[in-house]
Amino acid sequence: MKILFVASEVYPLVKTGGLGDVAGALPPALMELGEDVRIMMPAYPQALDAARNKKTVLDLGDPFSTGPLSLISARMPSSEAELLLVDSPSLYRRDGGPYQQENGDEWLDNHIRFAALSHAAAALSAYGSVIGWTPELFHANDWQTGLLPAYLRFHHGNPAKCLYTIHNLNYTGRFPAEILPQVNLPWEAYSPDGLEFHDAVSYMKSGLYYADHITTVSRTYAQEIQTPFAGNGFEGLLLDRSSSLTGIVNGVDYQVWNPAHDPHIAAKYQPGRMGGKQACKTALQQELGLPEDPKAPLFGMVSRLTEQKGIDLILDTLPTLERLGGQLVILGTGEDYWEQLLLDRAAVSPNIAVKIAYQESLSHRIIAGCDMFMMPSRFEPCGLTQLYALKYGTPPVVHRTGGLADTVRGAGAGPDQTGFVFDDAVPELLAAALEEAVDAFNHRNKWDNIVTNGMQDDYSWENSAKTYQTLYRSL
Ligand code: ADP
Question: Ligand 1, closest atom to CA 308?
Answer without folding.
Answer: 3
